[in-house]
Amino acid sequence: MSIQKSLLPLKTLFVSFHASNTILISFLPLYLHYRGLNGTEIGWVLAVESLASLLAQPIWGYLSDKYKTVRKILFICVIGLLIGSSIFFQMDTLSTILITGAAFYFFATPIGALSDSLAQRRADELNISFGSIRMWGSVGFAISALIVGRILDQFGVQYMMWPYLFFGLIILFVLIPMKDVKVESEPVKLIDVRKIIANKPFLLFLSVIVFITITHRMNDYYMALYITELGGSESLVGLAWFVGVISEALIFALAGLWFRKYRTLIFIIAAAILYTIRWFLYAAVDDPMHVIALQFMHGLTFGVFYTAAFEYVTRLIPKFLQSTGHLIFFSVYFGLSGIIGSLAGGPIMEVFSGSTMYLFMGTLAAIGTVSLILYHLLPFGKENAVRDTE
């Protein structure tokens, strides 16, 4: 069997999962607004998603390492996603949305991290770049953003549950023929997790990048509301995400060409600088089309930053704790950062404006950039801080 054919189920998983995730990232704030929630209440719902991510990802990652399987854990999470989302989208009060949302997100949020962990291991096995697999997630994101945006613009954001469940079912079916990872080590015990807790370079790196990832998550949650604040529609929100993830897909696809030429931290710092510039530019615009035009920077920021950071933490964590380490990384990148970003962004937009929120994000990204440079100059920031392979 050729490499490309063996990777087809995994690539289809990335397309379908990120297509479904697009719907939540791009349109959930608009859906919640349709349900009658204000900016602060929307922030609470988004914070619940991030809190569930923060708690769930290490748990599912540990179970994956303990039982030496990613595929079976994905099966459980996808079934939980389908059941949980079916209930979540029926709720219409803040309390029920929060409760059912927490249960739904407990299963849904680890799927992306587990998929990336599986892709990283398969890439190592086949000696290909992680980005060549991960780019298919961007393709799914882009297609969904464009098509679903037009569908919801035509029929209404209240029907977003149906395309979400459609992509969720594809994920379930594509897991059947998918190849699982091979793990040669003994099953992980809970006490082994201390190797990550005691890993100072890993923990310090996560503490530094959180300044950048908070701004990334805040944009994920509130760019749609910012575009509508400037006079845009649901279809323009979809177009904005389409432009962004196409640039992201190109970065992932070409990772094998550009990624090895310089040290990993150089790419991380460069992306952090571009994040800072990006948010200040967003704050200065007064037309939704300007936001769409600037979305090409999404690939140069998230695409580069995520690829380099994921590679960096992979080298810092023991091989037999790969899933646990990757999902802790995800917990910070999308969970902790999401909690802070959602709770801060909503009130800022409600009290001030979207422009003020992006000024705040630019300032926070600037602090993160300086912190990354300092981290690079410290002993823990050196590239020879490689993972323990005991």
From TrEMBL:
The keyword Transcription regulation does not apply. The keyword Ion transport does not apply. GO terms for molecular function: lactose binding; lactose:proton symporter activity. PROSITE patterns: MFS. It is a multi-pass membrane protein. Its main location: membrane. It comes from the Bacteria. GO terms for cellular component: plasma membrane. Keywords: Cell inner membrane, Cell membrane, Membrane, Transmembrane, Transmembrane helix, Transport. Residues 193-390 form the Major facilitator superfamily (MFS) profile domain. It is found in: Cell inner membrane. The chain crosses the membrane at residues 12-32, 44-61, 73-91, 97-114, 135-152, 158-176, 197-216, 236-258, 265-285, 291-313, 325-345, 357-378. This is PPP family 3-phenylpropionic acid transporter. It comes from Oceanobacillus polygoni.
